[in-house]
Amino acid sequence: MNDADVSKQIQQMVRFIRQEAEEKANEISVSAEEEFNIEKLQLVEAEKKKIRQEYEKKEKQVEIRKKIEYSMQLNASRIKVLQAQDDVVNSMKELASKELLNVSHDHLHHHHHVYKKLLKDLIVQSLVRLKEPAVLLRCRKNDVHLVESVLDSAKEEYASKVNVHPPEIFIDNVHLPPAPSHHNAHGPFCSGGVVLASRDGKIVFENTLDARLDVAFRKKLPEAMGIYKKYSTYRFSVLPSWPGRRRLFL
What we know:
- This protein is α/β, with parallel strands linked by helices and about 250 residues long.
- It is about 65% helix and about 10% strand.
- It has 4 helices and 5 strands; from the N terminus they run ααβαβββαβ.
- The protein has a 5-stranded mixed β-sheet.
């Protein structure tokens, strides 16, 4: 083999090695690019997932804030409605209380017989509820003379109703508070009526005009306010305390 043949063969071997190297380099390049693309895709997907999670988190926070704001607005609206209803109720109660004063003030004028008869009826009703042979009666100081004038007829009517002997009724020297006035705007008051108790003071029946108004109001308030379910119970504290008492209500 001459030098030309050797040189030719060497050149062929070099071309073959170069071709293999190029092919190998190309394979490495393709593989590296594929791995890069896969890793890049994974990173992109991971970032996308992170962004989605952040967005969902913020979306939930916004939704929670909206619900809280809505709940606060709803509660504020309910409070306004309840306050408006309460104002109406208070106004109605105040108007009714003023009308009560007209009833008990009648005895100072020419219609005193109306209040006098009412006192007698209240006494009879109280006796029926207590069913005691002897009772203690409290009234306003201004009403003492009217109460004394109807006691006998009230005892007889009660005895006839329940078929018992007429009870003993003792007028207490402790009186119920007077009618409300500008001089006593915030103190205890009584618009009229009576309070009867057993002699030991353990059973008390409050039959004042204020107590009856309270009962009537509680019964009629749902009807007056429609579907007004939450209404306040109003009760005037006009009764001096009897230790260990048990109070009867209308």
